[in-house]
Structures are given as C-alpha cells and as structure tokens.
Amino acid sequence: MFNDTADEDLMVMYQKGEVRAFEVLLSRHRKPVYNFILRFVGDKETAEDLLQEAFMRVIKGAEAYKRQAKFTTWLYTIARNLCVDQTRRRKHRKHASLDAPMDTSEESGTLMDVIPGNEMASDRKSVNKQLHEQMQRAIGALSDEQREVFLMREFLDMPFKQIADVVGVPENTVKSRMRYALEKLRLELDEYKDLAKAAP
Amino acid sequence: MTSHDSGGDGDDDAQLKSLRAVWLSMPDEDPPERGLAELMAAARVKAEQMAKPSLWQRLAALLRRPPVLALATVLVLIGGAVFIGQRHSKMEVAPEASDQRARMNAESATSSAASGSAAMGPANTLAAPEAPAGAAESAPADMESAQPTPAVEAKPEPKKHEAPKIEAPPRVTHRPPPSSAGVKTATTGAPTTKMNDSVMEKSALSTDSKETKKSDSRGFDGTNGLIEGTLDENQSTDKSSPPPPAAPAEAPTADDRAGGTKGAATAQPQPEVRRAQQYIAQAKTAAARGDCAAARTLMKRVASEDAASYRKAIANDAALKKCFE
Lengths: 200, 325
What we know:
Chain A has 200 residues and is mostly helical.
C-alpha cells in the first residue's frame, strides 16, 4: 500500500496518526542507517544503540517535521549527529578498536576476525576478508569529517548537495573533503591494488 | 562510478575504480531486531498523540484562525457599542423626565392662569400656598377614601419626614433640585398654554398597564415634590402660613427661593389642577392603549381633583370618551 509512497508523504501520513506509514519508513531506512552508523563508529553495540536513538528522535520530532524537508536528509542528520557525539565521547575514553589487537601478544587476531563474513570459497573469502579488513581500517583512519562524507557519498550514494545539508557545510567543502578522503584511501590501500583488481 | 566522478571527485583512474569495487562489495549487515518492538510502541503512542490533539490545542488553533479573530473583534465592537448605547440612553432618560415635569408645570401654570382666574390675578397666586396646605391634607384623605392605591398611601409618609427638612435650610440648599427648572420655568412664565400631549404620551407609553399605578405614584410624588417646592417658595413670601406637610429636599434652594419670590408675581398653578392634568394625560395614554380600566381609575381621580378638567378631557378625547361610553 505504502511501498511506492515517497518518504516525505509517509512522514506526513504518520503525523496524521498513520502508524503503518512509520513502519514502512522504518523498514526502508533501518538497514542503511544502521550500516552507516556501524561504519562510522565501528562498533556493533554502539551502532545498535545509536540506531535506536536515531529513530526515537524521528518519532519525537515527527510533529515538527515539515513536508519541504527531505526525509533522508533529516534522518541522516540525526544519525550523523549521534555518531559525531559518540566519537567525541569515545575520544575521552579508552576503547578497543576493531583493528586493535585483542591481546597484547602479537599472534592474537583483531575484532574484525571475529566478525563472521559471508559464505564464499575459501581462497576468495580470505582475499575479500583481507581487503575488507584493510578497507575498514583505512576508513577508520579517515578523519570524522572525511569519513562521514565518504560514507554518505560512496555507500549511500548521496548527492554532494544533500551531504552538504546533512553535514552543515558548503558543497565545495564536502567535495574537498571527499577528494582528501579518496586520496588518503588510495595511499592506504596502495599495497592492495593488485589484490583489489583480482577481487570480484 | 563515472556518475560519482562527474559529481566532482575527479578520480577516474583504474586504481580507484578497483578500490571502489572493493568497498561496494562490502556486505551490509542487518540490524538486530532488538529494539524494533520498542520503537513501534513509541511510534504508536506518538501517532495517537498526533492524531488527537487536546481540546485546548484544537481550541487555540481554532481561535488563531483569521476569520475567528475577525469575528471576535466584530463581536467585541458590537457589544461595546450596545453597552455604551444602553448606558447613554439611561443617562438621557433622567433629563427627559425632569424636562417633562418642567414642561408640565409650566403648562399647567399657564393654563391655570389663563383658564380661570384672570379676575383674581396675582392674588390667586399669592393665595395659592394656603390652598395646598389644606389640599395636601384633604386630597389624600379624599383619595384614600376613593381608591386606596399605593400611590395615595405613600403620600403621607413624606409629610412626616419632610417637615423637619424645611426647618433646616442649609442642608436643603446644598441639594440640586431637579424640579427647580420647572419652578423657574413656571415662574418666568413659559409661553406654552397647551399641554404637550406628545411628551406626555411618550412618558406614558413607556409604562404598561401595571406600571400605570407606579408611574402614577411616581408622578404623584414628583408632582407633590414640585408642588411642595412651590409651596415652600410661596411660604418664603408668606411666613404666616403654617409649614407645609411635605417639602422634598430638592425644592427650596436659595436660588429657588429667590426665583420663588420673583415668581410669586406670576401665575402659580393650583396643585389639584396640575395633578389633574397629569392624571388626564395618563388616562389619555391608557385609553389610547385600550386600557379603559386604568383610564377610568385615573379619570376618577381627576374628577375628585378638578371636575372641569375631567369634563373637558372626556369631551375632547375620543379614546377617553369611548372608555366612558
């Protein structure tokens, strides 16, 4: 019934008391928002909490939502703000990172090794795993500003204009950050370029 | 890829392409179902809240609409205008009443002066104070015997209270007499010789048949006050006469007394005649209204006061005549 309805229309319907409209919105955006948060903060539990908090804020602020605003811009602004707050808090605390060794010994694996991947052929799986690990590490090494722009641009396929709206900076700044992010990733993944070419 | 590059990346080299393929191949993880139920419960609660705004919210929203605001403004303006109008009309009624009394006094004075006693002349007016003194005692007695109305019963009461007031002139002089205008008009000799029927009818029409007695009594008292006021004035010229039985506070001011001495030379209407004229006017109004019972009652009083006026009124007024047929 609501599958073809635009997000903004669904939000307006929800404002009128239609819970089903919110349900559709949730099913549409829960996964991408979760993955955005997960790649931003790099921690599943935190990502779950932040996802919950982001949608709770959507519910609370539903009354104030205006039809003119793009729903995804609003939603990702909330999610991004939560992520930024979280990373700021984390800077003051000592947290285990995904790519940090779990033990002090050199042979111990990283948290990424514990995360299960998709079922693949063993050699390809290992290559992909290696690449994904390195990619995750490289993304984690980006600054917060570059990372958020990179994630929204590459994984959510957002136009620069919308990213600028979400982040709250001029569009040219977003483009500049994106350029620096790609440059940094290229350098980080330089040694894996042959492996990347071999990857499916 | 190229779409990304056209967006402003400017990175279309093969290395970046292959890298992009890697991160795009990174699998998306499914979010856990853990907090989904809580979210939906919160969403449902909020939806109910949004669907049903509270009564005051709806009322406030309704009142904030421009047409409602405009209507409220118009209502307030109309209400204010009506209120002010009512207040204004109330304020105008009192002067009208005093004007009527003044006119009646003046007319009755001139009519009595013209009708009857051209031969008597000023002597009659000078003798007038003595007559009311007797009349004031006799007239109520007559009326009580004829018709024991509240108006008649009310009359002796002021007598008791008003007598001392005359003995205390300073207190009396400070009061602005509403009948002073009438007295002055009477004394200065108003040119009108005919009763202003329209004015009388106007005042009479404002009362219904039940109120006829009330207005009667009011008119009676008022007239009595006027009469006694004039009496008092006359007494100031004739000290030998006994103090009048009823002298309302409004009558004898210093000015009035001065005017009274002036007006003593002019024709002062007989109190019975004035009363009779008032009764006639009220009876005419009652007859015109079709209230023959009231008209007859009033005319009976007229008959007891002034038989000549009684006959004249019945002869001249068709409505009255009809009541007596």
